[in-house]
Amino acid sequence: MADTDTPVVQPKKKGLTRRQKCSLSRGAQYAVFVAAVIAFAVAADWDRLRNQFAQKAIAEQMFPEVITLALKNTVLYTVTGFAVGLALGMVIALMRLSSVGPYRWLAGVYIEIFRGLPALLIFIFIGVAVPLAFPGTEIPGGTYGKVALALGLVAAAYMAETIRAGIQAVPKGQLEAARSLGFSPARAMVSIIIPQAFRIILPPLTNELVLLFKDSSLVLFLGVTLEERELSKFGRDLASQTANSTPILVAGLCYLLITIPLGFVVRRMEAKAQEAVR
Question: What whole-number distance in Å separates Cα of residue 131 and Cα of residue 239?
Fold first, then answer.
């Protein structure tokens, strides 16, 4: 008599494992990428691109002024704008954290306005509205001062929020320990909290420097002399003179000489910060 209680073993369904599915998906993505690169390489008219963007004789005309003048001015505009933005951003961040209501309100209004307005409008405001509102008033430093102020006003809104987040990320026990040692609130903030906050926010601040480096191209809306031109203005002027886009490409490569190393520094800082947390 057959045993009716014996369980029936179902045959295993054959199919791809999860690892095999992932490998297949990854392979498909690589195939799509390679196909797109090949299609672009075949479809592009490389001779026309070379004639318009890679004229060696025109590129040689840009040196050494593209480095000694344009790149130097770009770095100077960026560094001064970053310094103004950092100082102003620190003040706004402390106002944002203040126990005084009007300070918090003013800081919040500033941040919302200057984060919402395009940087171009800030440059136009500094170059046009300020002289109209205050006749006879000159911003110290001429064009360099105007650019530093415009970039600083834009950067301060973002830096203020970054600094505020960094201060709040410091454990509250640090402030309590400082107060128990007899530190005043202001001294504890300056000596204990802010240094720790800056170690936390150093990567995003460096990233802000990269963004300011590119925003410095808006200086052309202030009206600059030949000696005050930065990379974008320098490249555009020469491109108009030669009826060729090679100077714009060279100017773009000069931007990369700064932004790529800075980007590498940001990634290294972020990696070290993650290691410190672990």
Answer: 32
